Amino acid sequence: MSTLVTVGGHRVADASELDSVMDSYFGSPDEQEYINRFFGFAIKDGVDDANIHLEKEKLLNAKSQPIDAQVTGLTIAKRGQSLRGCKELIHHTNSRKPDVGSPDSAGSSGLPVQLPTTPDADLYDTPEHVYADNHSTASAADSDIFSVLYPYSAVESDELAIMPGEKVRVLRVFSDGWAFVQRVDDGKIGAIPAQNTPIKSDLGTAVILPGSYFVEFHSEPATLESSREHASFVQQAQAAGIGMYTRNSFNRLFNGVAIDLPNPRHLERLSALPTVRRTWPLQMRTRSVAIPSTNVAPNLEFAHQHTGVERAHRELGLDGTGIKVGVIDTGVDYMHPALGGCWKTPGCPFQYGSDFVGNGYDSVATPHPEPGPDPRDTCDGHGTHVTGIIAAKGPKVRGVAPGVTLGAYRIFGCPGNGTGQAADDVILKAMEAAHADRMDVINMSFGGGSGWSEDPLSVAASRMVDDGIVMVASTGNDGANGLYTSGSPGLGVGVINVASFENWKITSLSIDIVGPNRNKSIVHSSPGNSKFRFFFDSPAAVVAPTDSAGSVEGCAPFESDYTGKIIMVQRGNCTFVEKAENAQGAGAAGVLVYNSADELMSPTSVSPNVTIPLVIIKGDDGRFILDELKSGAVVLTATNNTVSEPNPAGGQISQFSSWGPDPELRLSPAVGAPGGNIFSTFPLALGSYTSLSGTSMASPYVTGMVALILQARAKRVSVDEVRQLILGSAHPIADRNSTGLLSPLRQGSGLADIWDSIASLATVEPPQLSLNYTVASAAKSEAGESVRTLMLHNRSPTNFLTCTMTHLPASSVSSFAANGSFTAVPRLWPEAADAQVAANTLPGAFIAHPGLPVRIAPGARQSVTVSISAPVGLSASDRWLYSGYLRFNLLWDDSVGTAQSLHVPYMGYLGNYTELDVLSPPEEGFPFVSMKGSTDALEDNGHITIDSAHRVAAHYRLEHPTRVLKVQLVDDANATQGFFPYGYLEYMGRNYQSVRGRFSNSTLNGTLYEDTDLTQPREVRPGAYRIRIDALRPLRDPSDPDGYQVWHSSRFIIDAVSLAKNASASTQDDEEDSNDEVFRP
């Protein structure tokens, strides 16, 4: 029998002898366990001179390796310390011959490698020979082949020198920041830094790039000192021995760099450099998907009739001529005839822009951009649709400002199998390019999730506003998840973030429903994946089965076979991808998802695992199909025929539109515009036109309005004045479910009206009021009053203005039901449209100074002091966000008696916002502590052992965003022992109520971290402990211990800690726990 293992000079050929030797040397009598440990980098410390030979079958069976190679007799020498990842796993070359006299060289086909005689003390103890067989026959799927973006010069003999553009096949990625790859051209294998391996968040709206960071310097950008800091940073990093690759350098809107840091332990060193103010992890931003359709009748004109655009075109001749508009998006199909059919030729609308990514940039497998020659988009369509809303001028689509000059800045590639992602540094690079091109207004239809104004992109957008560029962004499509769902970069100070209103007409490809009693043609949304249209060659049966969990939502697998049929499920409780996967698993040909509301939205079902179409239909149409199914079979026909019909929700807020406020109690969104069911241009290759829904469509509508204002005022108007004109002239709508107006936390200032904006002879500053929080006190007669000063400006050069004010209360909203439990759908007060309520349960407002009426001379300004009283009749324990509108009624003394009105929305928190709990109360089931994989809470003083199969998980739920979250292990004296992996987090959004986002967790696997960057690991020692979670309350100082809500778990005793997965804490990278559900919306 051939030798299996040589350990400490003992050649082992017998399985029983192997057990004995392994038990002696490695503390495990199980060969399979040993192999698993070895390839988990978990060989026990203190074992010297262990030459290990594993047969191919045992190697491949022990770990699923993507290497199909001759590895019999593979020899790997261990140096007596812990193996730390790929570089220590296999050191090899494909060109050298075995050294004479090397251990086992005669019996091995391996090729030896001489390690450096002066080893890096951080990596090696002593020089040694390490053998590996020739892996030139190694292979993997073509999907594992990637194009190299960054050059890498090999330092050690086991590393592979690569250049940009070379193709490599990734064989394995390791948690220490290295990848084991094979160069396609010559078959050579080696280690390279595995930079930018993305980790998806639960909802996919924010994707963190491990090892990739923004590094911000101290000085303001575009200064002499900032230029010096860039040079100093490079010198300081080199002197500190920090290995990094600079992705992008910024000095216009952001002073700093974006880097890849292969060694995560260098982050602490980097953060301590004198030039570094702070570091931020890079994220990948997403935007909605789109779908082509053909022969569709136009419907954008219906929106124009309700927003003053049609009148501005017809009566004033405005079209945006002379205004430069930048669109940061997926690029644009500039060859579309409605968009000019040209690129940077004389007279062409497109005179600016670049491609920053290329077609291949999108999914998690291809995170590195390879820019193309220009930003033409022929494969996605989102940017083409957005651009058409702004500037199309054709027979089917006429945009809001069809005469503008355009700049297209492409930051998204083709969808592929991804959902449309762009890294923050790519977006910032595009923003700086648009800034350099001096765009007058820029549209950003991306973002979403629970954002913060401190986000680097939000900060950059705010700096563009300060520099005179109007910034317009979508607020997000997370309305179903309730309050605090407005996203960045739209939360930047001064940015106009836009909510979506429903169009008054729906135009879509039709579905013909044939039932036993009635027939009906219905409309549907754009499919969730543009690659799979909702189109079938022949009629298909529709079924509405319950899933294996007994639900009609399709969130669990179906138990029956529905091959070739269309499965209809109800919206809610899981992602569209999960619904599609379950239907596809049952053999379905497509999925209908009927909405809870009688409106459409654009879903996302993009996944490599989903190959069938999914669309959303209105709630009434879903109920129609259900009624017909009660009587018999229902058949569906889906073709290229289109149907247009009135939208019953026209002019109302779109249910998908995100709610405010931002986490620091600033009012969001700013304003609303048509975004639901908008028909616009699409790439020629994808059908030329289509209808889409989203705040992505509302944002460009307002962008076009800004262009019309700038043209009408010959650009002699400031960014602040543009914002005042659009917000002040908007029209707030009523809340159909309550007695007052819809909360500005949903609609902002209301539905924008460009005619009233341009015609306005007055402005009010500020255009929105955020009251922060109201604490009733005796000093204020327990009235909870807030006093604010506004400035009215009479812009008429000839006539006096007389002003009065009317207060219009809006609905108060809360994320908590009457019983105190959290609810995704905000609770309203008044609770019904016909409710009779006490006056002190509604907010109030009056002008305190000067007395009414207010009279303002031509061209003059007048300050007005307004007193706003909180609805103190409501209970502060219910955590209400109250709101309303101040309507300024304006009358000029000209011959025709010109009259206008301006609306200023306000909102505040009833109670002390700084005392608001962030963590959910224990009676809701969170936080709790269990063993990983279990939902059973640990018992008080329970005894546990931590090893590769048993780990402790802390589960928590955030019911409010938090600036800082800490998860720590503490002893009986409440002294911290260190942070968990994923145990120090900043700028966290709250958890949603959906199944996948309902809670977060962090796992204790035997390693704690002593620093907040989680770069200084240490082992957990046996003892008695508790888990402590600290969540910073709103608006509190992170350095103040009293500013945190603190939760302690029950006491438990760790009897033993076995780092069998890793040889020491220094290598405990939490690889198996990287799927911890840290929710980052």
**C-alpha Rg (nearest Å):** 31 Å
Helix content: 10-25%
How much of the sequence lies in strands comes to 25-35%
Largest sheet descriptor = 7 strands, parallel
Task: Please provide the count of β strands.
Answer: 54
Structural class: alpha+beta
Termini Cα gap: 57 Å
Principal-axis shape: globular
Average pLDDT level: 78
- Could you name the ranges where pLDDT drops below 50 across 5 or more consecutive residues? 1-15, 21-144, 194-207, 288-296, 776-782, 1060-1075
SS element count, helices? 17
Major beta sheet, strand line-up: 17-18-16-20-21-22-30
Question: In words, what does this structure look like?
Answer:
- The structure is a single chain.
- The protein is an alpha+beta fold and 1081 residues long.
- Helix content is 15%, strand content 31%.
- It has 17 helices and 54 strands.
- The strands form 13 sheets. The chain has a 7-stranded parallel sheet with strand order 17-18-16-20-21-22-30, with helices on both faces.
- Strand 9 and strand 10 (189-193) form a beta hairpin.
- Helix 10 (424-436) runs parallel beside helix 11 (456-466).
- The two termini are 57 Å apart.
